[in-house]
Every structure is written in C-alpha cells, then in structure tokens.
Amino acid sequence: MGTTQLETVPEPKYWHLKTVLSEALDTDFSVGEILPNERDLAARFGVARATLRQALEQLELEGRLHRRRGVGTTVAPPRMGVDVSTSQHTWPGTADDVWQSADCTTGTFAAAPAAVGRMFTASVDGELHTVRRTRMTHGQPVAAELLYVPAASVPELPAIEATSGPVRARSVLRELQRLGLDGQDRAVELGSARADDAKELDRLPGAPVLVVTTRYFVGGRTAAVSVATYRADTCRLTFGDSGDLEISHHGPAAHAS
Prior knowledge:
The protein is of the alpha+beta class. It folds into two domains: 13-75, Orthogonal Bundle (Arc Repressor Mutant, subunit A); 80-238, 3-Layer(aba) Sandwich (Chorismate lyase), CATH 3.40.1410.10. The protein has helices spanning 13-27, 38-45, 49-61, 114-117, 166-176, 195-201, and strands at residues 65-68, 72-75, 80-83, 99-108, 127-137, 140-150, 183-192, 208-218, 221-231, 235-238. Helix 2 (38-45) crosses helix 3. The protein is elongated.
C-alpha cells in the first residue's frame, strides 16, 4: 500500500480515505493480515489519527476489518452468503447443514416470543422444544439460531434421553427429517442484536443484525419455526441461484435483472 496524500475533495476526508483503504484491502492485503498501526497509517496517508479512526470504524461496520484489543486491526474474510430463497425445501440438520447444534430446552409456548407463538395455531397447548444452533466461518460466530419445534411435530422423540443439551437437539432434528416437508416460507428483517444474541455473536448489544425467520409446513400446518440472527457486518443476502438480486459489502447498491 503506497503513500497517498489526500487532496481537497467534496466528500468528508475520512470517507475518501475509507475508499482508498478499501481498494488497498482488495489488492495489497490478505485475509487475516494485520494492518500497520494507526500512527504509521496516519503518517502514510497524511491525515490526522482521528480521521484515520473514522475511516477504520466505517470499514469495520461494513465488515471489511476486524478490530480486537491486543491483536490489532486485521483484514476480515469475505462476507458469507445467506441464501434466503425458498426454491429448495430442506429440514434443518441435513447432511450438508452448516449449523452446529448447541443446546435444546423443552418448555411451553408461553416461553417463546409472541410473534413465534402466533405462527402455530394448533399446538399452543402442548410442549415446545427450542433448539439453539450456531454458525461459524473462519473460526468466528456469524449467526445464532433458535428453532422452535412443537412436541406434536416430533411425537416419536425418545423419552429416555436427557431433556436438554446437544444430544437432545440432534434427536429433535433427526425426528423432523422423518416428516414429509411440504414447503417453507422465509422473511428477512434488519434488526438490533439483543443481549443474548450479542454475546453469542461477539457483538455489542444493539449492533445491526439480519433476522431470517423461516416457517416449515407439513400437512398444511406450521411444523417448526426458525429465527436465525446473522451478523450484518459479516453476511450478505442471496436470492436463489439466478443471481437476480444480491446485496454485497462492496457497495451499497443492489443489482437486479
């Protein structure tokens, strides 16, 4: 990354610097590489350290950089694609599933968020299994999922197993896969990380996240609901295999056919 003196530009100086740095990340650095310290970078670009910090903070928000105390600023891996199409209908926990089962608890529908409870119409009086799963990339957590499964959807679940833990979670997923999946629908919202999600995703509470809610249908009823929370700084949305629409960290605009 060569020395670049910033000239007078109509946009804020830190924003122009962010653009220059972003281009350098694509050409001069590799994923995981540590950037020079702030003093050296500020001298190299002829800017104040406050301006440099603003540019680095913006690049971190866009998912281009990871900044960790005691480690420094490293180049982040490319954003992970999140397929939000419903063209392929599969249950969670299949062989090619990238999620890791972490825990399972059993309670009542009252313990689930009200919006989730309203998606179930016929099973609100029974037990509800809640499977917690995580998704990792490059050794970092990028998403946390809560999968809500009514006991009525998995009636053959072994009763002799522990009622919680990863073993129970895998059993619930295995029983779901015995059902004939009719279809699914999916909704995506921009949200803010709650305290429990923020802790699991190594983010601050209130950080921007993508919330993907999926309903799975069997026999005309909702058999399970997934609420997956993705780090907005590390993920991008993809819509099907056609590439008609994609949202990427390389620019704020989406493209459509």
